[in-house]
Description:
This protein is mainly alpha-helical. Helices cover 55% and strands 5% of the residues. It has helices at 3-10, 19-23, 25-41, 44-62, 74-80, 85-100, 102-105, 119-128, 131-149, 160-163, 165-183, 190-207, 212-215, 238-259, 265-285, 291-302, 328-340, 388-402, 405-409, 415-424, 430-437, 460-470, 474-483, 485-488, 495-502, and strands at residues 309-313, 316-320, 352-355, 377-380, 447-449, 456-458.
Amino acid sequence: MSTTDMVTRTAPTGVEPSAEARVSRPAAVLALARFEARELLLQIPVLLFLALYVGYAGWRLFLGGDGMDDFPVLQDTDRATQPTPMLLAVAVFICVNRAVLRSRRQSTDQHFDILPMEHWRRTVAHALSVLPLGAITALVVGFQFTWAALKPGAVGHGSLAELAVGPLTVLLAGVLGVLLARVIPVGFVAPPFVIGAFVLTTLVSAATQGKHWVSWLGPVVVEEGADPFPSALLGRPAAWHALYLTGLVVLLLCVAVLVSGGRTRLVTSLTALALTATAVGVAGQSPGDPASLIAARTQASVSPQKEQTCVRHGRSTYCAFPEWTGRIADWAEAVDRIQSRAGGSARGERLTVRQKIDARYGLQGDAAIEPSSTPGHVTVGTKWGGNRLPEFAVGVASVLVTGTENEAGQMCDARAVTTMWLALSTQPDPMQSLRDVRLDDSIAGSAIALAPTSPVSMSAQQTAVVRQLLQKPHYTVAAKVKAHWTELTSAKTSTARVAELLGVRAEGKGTSADSGSGSCE
């Protein structure tokens, strides 16, 4: 007779545990949870994905980013913490599922019959073992947001409900792994379940065409694509979603305990409470954007002046949404540098720099901002830093050269040379800025240079002239620009003539855009 058979035959059945055993049950559950948590943290998939998660978060904070991370918008920063924990959640789901099934794989289930801890208490212990990983995720998320919030260029307001999504996703994955092990006690069911869930989610999203209420049933709903919105225009049911996820975590845990035989009054009451919280969360997050939000987004897009604060800084006026007023000093500094190198009346022109967004298409929209036809009006977006700095400079310079953003968008003549030199010579690295603002990231040949509204078309010859100018000391070029400002800003002046006036060679043959006709034909 084997040892297992002897233990099974001699194991006491139907014997009530002693009072001492009943008292020690919570301590035993916590002890088992600590042991399982330690074992979970030592699993290779969990270690690997945890290291990747923490490493990626650290890289984004200290080394990564595109320059705009130096000027974070906090209502976007909190959402940005949500997708990455999904990878850790998958590893947690698989490893917790395997941990629950460990005794079945090793054929030691029957040994538990002689222990005072019931089956459902072991289920609770496995679920509690996920808490340290949820806490680590919360620490990383909190550090990411705090780091961004403490930066001098930070604007906006974050949401605790948005920040809670990452840790709740990890907890949800762990509890789901426990429940799956109790419902389907098969060793290799977790990986196919993950693949099946991904395929099913994709099919449902395609079939429902990404409807609002369906999208919000998933744990993470990032909604990105548009430039940052003011906090009041977000319209995300973040608090309801956090309630939904919290209720779902507790509900799945209660179902796992009930399946394991823990049909106590406390578990039944918690199940009812969790089901109610989940249902309330679903009901709260399901409605789409209300009419009041749509109206507010339309007004902010069409008539931003009704929502903005305007500040006089030097010669010019700067208008921004309330959360962005701290950026006005940066915009003014850029404008002052550019105007100091302009000539004629542009040097003292009173500009109006206005912040614009197009929020009519929601957080996932990517609509272009219409250029202004009002003289002296310059557009700035809600993003700042990185490539947005030279792009804003191109927008300012094009208005100084042509008069309006609308005219700048129709400019197909040699004025592009003056515009691009005026904008890029003020940047710390002019040649790199030339590459950054061009659509194809080049510094040779014809290309489109980006601006907040109307881009600037550059021919190959104009690009060659600009490149030569940017390699010369800016003060020598600035003197010539001021001396010949009228001719340099005329649509009738050819690229060859601009190069001659500024003391560089006009390489290559001119195109119709360079002939001085001012036509784009």
